[in-house]
Design a protein that fits this description.
The complex is a heterodimer of chains A (386) and B (228). Chain A is of the alpha+beta class and 386 residues long. Chain A folds into two domains: 173 residues, no CATH class; 169 residues, no CATH class. Chain A is built from 15 helices and twelve strands. In chain A, the strands form two sheets. In chain A, strands 1, 3, 4, 5, 6, 7, 8, 9, 11 and 12 form a ten-stranded mixed β-sheet that branches. In chain A, strands 2-10 form a two-stranded antiparallel ribbon. The two termini of chain A are 27 Å apart. Chain B has 228 residues and is of the alpha/beta class. Chain B has one domain: P-loop containing nucleotide triphosphate hydrolases (Rossmann fold), CATH 3.40.50. In chain B, the strands form two sheets. In chain B, strands 6-7-8-3-9-10 form a six-stranded mixed β-sheet. In chain B, strand 1 and strand 2 form a beta hairpin. In chain B, helix 4 packs across helix 5 and helix 5 runs parallel beside helix 6. Classes of the chains: A alpha+beta (386), B alpha/beta (228). Chains A and B meet through helix 1, helix 12, helix 13 and helix 15 of A and helix 2 of B.
Chain lengths: 386, 228
Amino acid sequence: MKVPKLIWKNMLRHKLRAFLTVLGIAIAVAAFCVLRTVVTVWYAGVEASAVNRLITRQAVSFIFPLPYAYRDQIARVNGVQAVSFANWFGGTYIDKSNFFARMAVEPETFFDLYPEFLVSRQELEAFKRERNACIVGEDLVKRFGFKIGDVVPIDGDIYPGKWDFVIRGIYHPKEAATDPTNMLFHWNYLDERLREQVPQRAGYVGWYIVRVGTNTNTAEISQAIDNLFANSRAETKTETERQFSQNFMAAFNSVITAMNVMSFVIIGIIMLVLGNTMIMSTRERTREFAVMKTLGFSGTHLVGLICGESLMIAALGGGLGLAITFPLISFFQVAMPKGFFPVFFIEPITIILASVAALSVGIAAALFPVHRTLRAKIVEGLRFVG
Amino acid sequence: MADTNAQLIQLKDVTKSYRRDALEIPVLSNLSLSVPEGEFLALMGPSGSGKTTLLNLIAGIDRPNTGQVVVGGVDIALLGESPLAKWRARHIGFIFQFYNLLPVLTAYENVELPLVLTSLSKKEKRAHVEAALTLVGLGDRMRHYPKQLSGGQEQRVAIARAIVADPTILLADEPTGDLDKVSASEVMILLERLNREFKKTIVIVTHDPRAAEKAHKVMHLEKGDLSI
């Protein structure tokens, strides 16, 4: 008989209790993974942001536009390599539930600044040639069955009217964190319509995207850009794409903090569940431990047996929890409103965190029973009546 | 044993008391005892006279307040917890009144338990366990769990567990206390055989005069005093 077999037999002494404990840990680990995944995907935009991209927006608020005329002035700032721009469009595709981001972009430069959006050369050229062309993310293709040549009708809200866009390209995300749910079309198409229908709204963009060198001083360049427009009617605020995303996420900070706290509360609950099981289990075996000490088992042996049992339960629960996490995440992907999270995936760090948490809990839950067993005198243990 | 002194077990001026809340309860007072190698000694006496305490001190599972407990030339009262555990594994086979078998293990596995601490190969362990169980007449009950055995059979498994690592001394605390007459007699015959054929030094604590009859020597412990 090997020690692991002895640990296994001890663990299965109360099969129902062991099963419920393993199940409890599994559910907690799965819940931990789902919560961590939600937090992770919430920050996916921040993680996906490039270090060499700056965003220049209206200083008062993101929702106010900036003059198109700023583009050339920004491009002349020392250290700036390229400038593009985008504009939030909004609108509705058939039904309000079909939410996805629709943005008017500068077709010549936008994809140069976003190399993580992979589009074939032919499709990109076709997109650039046609004024009402658009490029859609691959998830929209999966979701709505779009194909090249399809017309996507959009009911405008920020920009009222009926808008028809022809799909001329499909982009594929380069990284897992890249948003595959955007629809991107020509800013010129939007601007021309505005010139005809609401001329006072024409000639504006939502924000500028500025590419700088990877080793340049972004703070200095940002300041230089903002200085250009200081005291103007549309002052700017320039920051790195990461800061921009973080500021955008700040509105959800309390929700994210609550989810973070909850995920660690769950770890605490696992510890209490397993700790309770181990305390009960070792208390019932007080006399057996005394017998084993009498047979010559040392404190180290007993520590190994108790920690081994606790770790075995934690590992089984953790393993089962991870196994059910994947179908659970798939279920959430299906069940959640489309477009709520552009990307939804389990990061390897979440798996590692959950595994480490389960095993740490296994050790922590054994500490008190180990302490109690080591302190107990053999003669008192032999008199113990459970 | 480090010393093959004629007296295998020697207790010198041993004092032991227990504390119950604020009360100090004296159990043994300046007690001395010598047990030669190969002896079969029965300790008798009324409840609370200190018989089990005396046995526990010899087994190294309890420590005296004062005095020396020298077994095989080693003052075990001076050993730390870990060396003492190793010493017990090597030299002591302990038989309890209520058998104290692990319910989740089969008879075979219960007997094998002390061998988990040794470096014997799987084959050697199997040979030891089978020999021990055959010796106690349970060669055909190896795969049985304790709950599938009678009290007498359980005690014989406990004896097999006590002898499987070939200890120098066998200590038995009321080994027949929970058994019927027939089973008690079988257990005592077995202990007598272990003493006679395998030269084991045996010390038993018992209330049962019939059990004590099998011993070479009977000593009475009353109010902390030993007498023949």
